[in-house]
Every structure is written in structure tokens, then in C-alpha cells.
Amino acid sequence: MQVIHYTDPGCPFAFSSEPNRLLLEWHYGDQLEWKTVLIVLSSTPEQLEAKGATAAKMAGLYAKLHREHGMPFSVVERERLHVTRPACLAIAATQVHQPDAADALLRRLRVRTMGHGDQLLDLPSTIDGAARDVGIDPDELHRWVEDPDVIAALDADMAAARQPVPAAQVLDHKLAASEDGGRRYSAPSYELRAGDRVAAVPGFQPYPAYDVALANLDPSLTRRALPTEVEEVLAWVSMPLATAEVAALLGTGLDAARSKLEAAGASYEPVGEDGYWTAA
Questions:
Q1: What is d(CA 73, CA 124) in angstroms, rounded to the nearest whole number?
Q2: Mean pLDDT of 252-278
Q3: Is the peptide bond before 124 cis (omega within 30 degrees of 0)?
Q4: Contact 96/144 with Cβ under 8 angstroms?
């Protein structure tokens, strides 16, 4: 089963949906073959302004999403809006030149820009810092983004994100307007492909929507039960997990997950309005 994940490092809804993505990986494991496609939500400040976005509105959205979904946002108002193309280009460059690090770079860009009010996504310092986090030399990354193959790859991603499949078009309210007046996927969106059969789960959705789509597309899939111990969760991943992510994987509330993490002696790093946990 191929999972095509349409996303963008600057989308707060995609960040809030990270617990769902991890649940998919836990339940279905290597039965799913993942492909990350970058939408590029914005290339210029004018695109953001045309949508009526402001730094104050974004801060309010971050606060709302944190209250409702628990991911570690910094809810302070940023000094300005930031565009996502430079970060998307860095991820696309990593997909081409060091593919094993590409999803880790996407994660670190999200952690930095969503959790820290001064780490705007289009600042070279933010992108360079995220590159260092995952073991990429920023100077090398700067060379990669000049590669014509990388630019072509990002252009192909953008084109694919602006051609939602017919099933996704039925749920037009889960799509967004594209720059050419058409429709595009919003983040996160998923296309699930099994042979010539396709199921679409566009836009921000509750987790059961993915289970239902997968079960209908391929009833032969096996679904692993949720873990019962914090140690099992933290040993499963190679990155720090937010409290909300641990809670989703344990099937508990945030307070219960936090209590289990503390009892297990997990290390905690405060970030934004919450933080991230690693094994002791």
C-alpha cells in the first residue's frame, strides 16, 4: 500500500496531525510505503496577504490548535508572516541528495518554527539549524538547492498537489484555492494507493478516517494493537515525541500520558506551550 502524503513544513494543521501520522506508522508498519509530496503553501508574502493572513491571526490559530490538539506551539505573535518555499526547497534537495534524512529535516523544521516564535521558516538560520539537527552540513545543503534536478522535483511536487484526484474533489471543502484559480490539496492530505485503486483523505481529518479508508482499500492489512508502556513508545522512534503524540500512541489523555512519562523517568524539553520527551 502506497501512502502519498501531501504536506508542508509551515502548515499548523499538518503539525497538529502528527499524532495521526505516527498512529498510521504504528498500526500498519512496513505494510505502508510512504512518499512525501511538498505542497509549497506560499512562495511570496503577497500570496499570504491576498489570503488575508496576518501575524496576529496566525498566533491566534496556533493557540486554538494547541488547545484543541495539544502539539507544542509557541503562541506568541511572530514579527512577520513567513513563506514556506525556502524550507520546501531544502526538503526537496534532501529528498534528492540524502533521502534517508528528508523526513527528519521536515520534522525538525516543524519543531523549530512551530515551537519558537523567532525561528521563521524562511530564515536561513532556521533552515541551517534544522539541517545541523539531522546531520546535514548547511553549506552542502546550500549547494543542493541550486541543483536543477531539485528545482524540477519541487515543481513536480507542486503540480501534483494541484491536481487532486476525483475522490478528493468530492470533498471540495477540504481542498484550498491554488494560485492559478484552481484547487489544490491542503495539508495534510493523503492518497492511498493499492494497485490501480485509489482512496483520498484530503485535509485535516480525525484518525478513524484513515483506518476506514485503508480497511476498504485493502482488507488484508493487519493492524497492530496500541502499545501499553511508555518505554515501548519512546524506544520505537528516533526522535523526541510531543506529549500529544505519546498520548495518541498510548490511547490516553494528555495528563495521563504526562504522568506515565514522568513515572518512567523520560527526559523532557519544554518547547512552546508544551514540550518533547525522550527515553531516560
A1: 21
A2: 98
A3: no
A4: yes
